[in-house]
Amino acid sequence: xxxxxxxxxxxxxxxxxSQIPSQLALRRVAIDTWxxxxxxxxxxxxxxxAEGFQALSKIEVRxxxxxxxxxxxxVDDAAIVGCNELGxxxxxxxxxxxxNGHTVSVTQAEPPESMGALFRKIAGERLTRxxxxxxxxxxxxxxxxxxxxxxxxVACNRDELDREEVFFLSDAMVASGxxxxxxxxxxxxxxxxGGIPGNRTTMLVVPIVAAHGMLCPKTSxxxxxxxxxxxxxxxxxxxxxxxxxxxxxxxxxxRGCLAWGGTANLSPxxxxxxxxxxxxxxxxPGQMVxxxxxxxxxxxxxxxxxxxxxxxTAKVRSMPEAQRLRRLFEYVAxxxxxxxxxxxxxxxxxxxxxxxxxxxARDVMRVLQNDPDAPNDLRQKALRLAGRLxxxxxxxxxxxxxxxxxxxxxxGRALRRMEDIITAQGSKGFDHMHPKLGPLTYEVCAPNSGxxxxxxxxxxxxxxxxxxxxxxxxxGVDLMHKLGATVAQGDVLYRVHAGYPADLEFARxxxxxxxxxxxxxxxxxxxxxxxxxxxASDALRTGGLDSMTAFQADLLCNAPGISPLSGTAAxxxxxxxxxxxxxxxxxxxxxxxxxxxxxxQLILAQPNKLIARSLSLSPETVKWHLxxxxxxxxxxxxxxxxxRLRRLFxxx
Length: 652
Prior knowledge:
By secondary structure, this protein is an alpha/beta fold. The protein is built from 28 helices and 18 strands. Strand 3 (58-63) and strand 4 form a beta hairpin. The longest helix has 17 residues, at 319-335.
């Protein structure tokens, strides 16, 4: 055997990092990091030391031609991830879409392309359309860490976006995901900006408009900080996490659906931003508009009815604020080619009696079945919104929508359509007569006698969440009294349901600190002097009251046993007999002082512009009051309202 030898030669030094393979075995780490890609590396991992990674630095992970960016977390426990493994959080693992144990390569990540635009926004600069497109593309691709996301959200909130920037952001968010096309000229949707517990009108609007024949493919969100979202409540009745292809079949067959929107990949950047906005309680107008409209346009809607509730504890707390928000929505919607109808509604209290998935599902089914125990405020609001959507139909005359919606609901057609949708999505056999509520309960009682003059939406929602809603479907709050109700000391204001003792105790402590109700001595004021209602009406007419004082003045004008006539309207009907006045007190609508002033002008056949001029109001405010008057009178047109008012106020 011949062995060749050679003299030793100098071999160039090789950097340590290149001698160590950057490949590791993938390990799924069962941690939900909520819309953030997180990677876990052991401190003694050779790749971690060689590449110079640090905690919170970003890495690029590749496997099978796919790649993701993730933020590094360093661990010292081999039970979480070994030295030759790379752990990925649930979100990151799902995005990479390879098997546990698969070999992955790991490298330092390049900074996101849009980082320069982000820095300019942090500095307070106005960004261009291209800037927002780049930022949203990186957000949707999970290229931003939570710190960078937070910086963007806070910068947009601190320096309020102008309306062009809001449009740029909205348009970029639509482009970041799938955009549906239903191949129909009229696709309707309804949305509420939120902040009102209960308020499950969507689950009534969809079957009503679908029964009318309009296409309403409703994809809804789950609750993040509220006691229930539409998807959470619908899940009590049927499956909501369905493949998009199945949802499309249901929509074609029944003209509507009620499903969770997470499977459709609509505006994915919005879901990432929400994961930062909600914990920080940031909900700036610009980001709200972009979030809502991007989802609706991406879902293929052509016509949208938007509900903006206003009230002392709602998201929007004054009419000027609501009108500003309305104009911003209308501008961006117009730029995006979406037909928008904004409805400003009463947000002074929860809508419906139940707050929590099962309780809200009970209320919805009671309304659909025309149950006498159904909450009338939920029914009336849903009819009003459904009527506005139905009026998008070119074959429906303006003002007729409410009556059509009411006929569909009263005839049982809405119930049958809802049952069809529930069956198609996979019924869960919910019995609204015997709902499965949380077995642990306690009651919150009135600390003194009085009239309910305020309900704190935020506090009632907080109590319901602490009780376990929406995670525990049967948990929540069941309201026994609403605004204007007279209660005696010890009367039950609401009942709390929970599934676990700890949740019940958390809720009990929260309600002990603040029951969420304000009880006033309205009756004592009314008994003090017969002119108190007139004084309250004058104060409302003069204006300048804060929202809570205005609400209390409104209660004084409309208290049980007080004639709804005051001011100009009272003078117009002063010759009516006492018996007719008593009849109106019992059966007539409870109009506010301002509504009565407008009603009187309406009887005189005055156009909106003259009404606005004579009462020193804007035409938009007159329209809002007229909408409330129609709602209270139970009519759908100006002609019907005048006829009803003349019956109520004979001789006026």
